[in-house]
Amino acid sequence: MLKRIKVIIIQYKIFILLAAIIPVLGFILFYGRRVKEPPINPAFGSLPVPETAFDIETEAEINYKLNLSQNAFAKFPSQLSVYQIIKISDQETVNQFAQITNDLGFTVEPAVQAADKETYCVWKEQGRFLRVNSSTGQFLFQGNFPLSLGPVTPQEAEGFVKEKLASWGFLDKDTPGAISYLGITGMELVPVTNPNLADVYEIVFSFSINGLPVVGLGPAQDVALARVNREGQLLTLHYFFHQFDQEKIGTYPLKPGSLALAEIQGGQGKILSLKTQTGFETNFNLANPIKAINISSVELVYYESLEKQEYLQPIYLFKGAATLENDEVLETALYLPAVSSEYLIQISPTPASKFKL
């Protein structure tokens, strides 16, 4: 009997060893991964709740339905880096944009303007306009500036714009761009699906930090956008991306999925956009308030806005469908701060700047 047991042990020795080793390896891998996570380091103390003046407020009672579970948050980290926005002086702005203004054909000195508690450097010359936020480095160009000597394809237009932005240090040459097509109807630009019918190419560039997308909030939700006509003229270029300190970094815990879902269910999410199925922003009035919002997805992204902000921090971006009282269904997006609530303080923007339904 003992001899038979000995034979069995010898035959199955490898399986016995594996049974002993696998749990140990699992323990090492599990805790090894945990050790690799950066420690919590709230270097900036309490952070202001990320807000934008363009979120939509409604006094209607909305029924929220969640078509996602806590498992949707399983792919997100439990903590994330927060970055401090760099403050730039007026003179630093002028010096930094010397090459840009030269490349865009400006020869005049900038005027300094103040609006909405912000300071801007403004260049105007021969129908061209460039406005730069002096404290953030965000800018908007409008006019007709030739990028080429003749007509361009959409891909050529993207290449010209990317080359400009890369030469100014605003993006890498491998930053992805997405092209859409616009036609001119009267005084408006309208989306078209056929590139051959396009009068203007719209190019949007996507940015990421720590592998997470950077998402703009408000009417201009694209962080970097350019419009180029078929003749190769740059019509619009905006870049709404705050410059941030990459050396002083804080690491903050993130809100767990269960709490984020409970807050959305409780109506704490800020409504960012309401669009028709064709992608047009829609005007609303109190005659057709929102009666229900069906949430179908969530993303962890870095928050960017047109307004001045102190820190670049993450938010949970929820997407789904909003149903109005007249049963019209619209695409919608909502957001919640992703940083754990004990590290947040409320600093509300001017109430008059809000959109109310």
Structure overview:
The chain is α+β, with helices and mostly antiparallel strands and 357 residues long. It contains six helices and 23 strands. The strands form five sheets. Strands 5-6-7-8-15-14-11-9-10 form a nine-stranded antiparallel sheet, covered by helices on one side. Strands 3, 12, 13, 17, 18, 20 and 21 form a seven-stranded mixed sheet that branches. A three-stranded antiparallel sheet has the order 16-4-19, with no helix packed on it. The longest helix has 24 residues, at 13-36. Helices cover 20% and strands 39% of the residues. The protein folds into two domains: 47-84 and 249-356, no CATH class; 88-246, TATA-Binding Protein.
Strand content: 35-45%
Structural class by helix and strand composition: alpha+beta
The CATH topology label of the largest domain is: TATA-Binding Protein
* H-E order: HHEEEEHHEEEEHEEEEEEEEHEEEEEEE
Rg from C-alpha positions?
26 Å
CATH arch. level architecture of the largest domain: 2-Layer Sandwich
